[in-house]
Amino acid sequence: MGHNASKTALITGITGQDGAYLAQLLLDKGYRVCGLAPRRSSSDVNLSRLEWLGIEKHVELFDGDLGDLGSLIRMMESCQPDEVYNLAAQSFVQTSWSQPVLTGQVTGVGAVNVLEAVRIAQPKARFYQASTSEMYGLIQEPMQSETTPFYPRSPYAAAKLYAHWMTVNYRESFGIHASSGILFNHESPLRGLEFVTRKVTDGVARIKLGLESELRLGNIDAKRDWGHARDYVNAMWLMLQEETPDDYVIATGITTTVRDMCEIAFSYAGLNMDDHVVIDPKFYRPAEVEVLLGNPGKAQQRLGWKAETSLKAMIEEMVEADMQRLGSR
Ligand code: NDP
Ligand code: GDR
Question: Which GO molecular function, any one, fits this protein according to its record (predicted)?
């Protein structure tokens, strides 16, 4: 609170996992927080995550869409942000093969719409782009850093790589204070149910409560560097407090197989994973990113950031939250 009291932030994707945690972090720091909230047919706007954190009444929501430049410019004009966080995306890798064009439009071109809105209506604002470790894809280096070459392996990753380079270009060509966080996987009780950690913790809670008996998964040999979303949104904020915009890898520096992550969830609930997990090729991907492991050295050195939450503590928190959610239905 206090010294940031006069600052305003605008978050696209405020209704998603990271948007909700980032909104909470910025409200705690005394920011005025605006968010782009696309209309959804089921309930006008998806407020469930903001409600879970109890902050839905403290943010100002604007009607608009990443595909509609006019709506983004109008939002910049009414909100007048000091900081813009572009978190909106079609973010599920699997869906990017069934909807490659939409993924390109939202995740790739959509980011350029936000950059254009900044350039036209709020050029002094600092801009954050949600880049991803998926851009490394078929990596050749055992540990990925800011200098590791990219090799995207999905329509999602290719769209994110375009947005990433456009962010660099707006920084170099137009002097926009634009930074890109290359974030490795990060999870929480607010993670979407289709992503593997939450699918597992929700599945374990259902099995424990007798609502299901099996959990169907794809490639459980894949390895990911998993951290907690609450820790990672802090890195986004720290990047925009730097005088010079730059790109940073945000990761834990530890990689774990899907199998071992699963094991943590099942044993926490006192269950045996082998009694319940069924491998279903339906969840295999046309091209897989087999292993990701990030080197967060630059972020630690320059931003003083490091991951605080262990995978075990996070998965246990997620199982707990899912048991409570399902138990109280
Ligand atoms: P989510 O999928 O939880 O949230 C995505 C957000 O984008 C939602 O608020 C969604 O709105 C919004 N959105 C989707 N399409 C549009 C559109 N056309 N116009 C406006 N808003 C739209 O993602 P996360 O919170 O997990 O991730 C945040 C960002 O970080 C994403 O860009 C993701 O690709 C990227 N990322 C995520 C990582 C992770 O491990 N979580 C790692 C690296 C990068 P609605 O709620 O209405 O659907
Ligand atoms: P990812 O996350 O593709 O890394 O992208 P996801 O949790 O979907 O997959 C992680 C790994 O688990 C394997 N897997 C399964 N995945 C899902 N979803 N469902 C399953 O049943 C299953 N079984 C095995 C996958 O094959 C994969 O190897 C996430 C998203 O948040 C992106 O937006 C973000 O950019 C990256 O993380 C970093």
Answer: GDP-mannose 4,6-dehydratase activity
Q: Which domain holds residue 82?
A: 8-187+226-250
Q: What are phi and psi of 153, to 5 degrees?
A: -120, 15
| pLDDT value at 2 more than 50 | no
Query: Does residue 192 have its Cβ closer than 6 Å to ligand 1?
Result: yes
Same structural domain for residues 98 and 153?
yes
Ligand 2 centroid–CA 189 distance in Å is: 16
Identify the sign of the CA torsion 41, 43, 131, 97: negative
Atom of ligand 2 nearest to the CA of 91: 33
Provide ipTM, 2 decimals. 0.99
Report pLDDT digits (tens) over 256-297. Answer: 999 999 999 999 999 999 999 999 999 999 999 999 999 999
pTM: 0.97
165 lies in the same domain as 260: no
Give me the pLDDT at residue 187, please. 98
- To which residue do tokens 């894809």 refer? 137
One domain, residues 315 and 213: yes
Contact 136, 148 (CB under 8 A): yes
CA angle, residues 225, 226, 227, in degrees to nearest 5:
125
Query: Which backbone phi and psi does 197 adopt, to 5 degrees?
Result: -60, -50
Specify the amino acid at residue 258: V
Are 217 and 118 in the same domain? Answer: no
- Into how many domains does the chain fold? 2
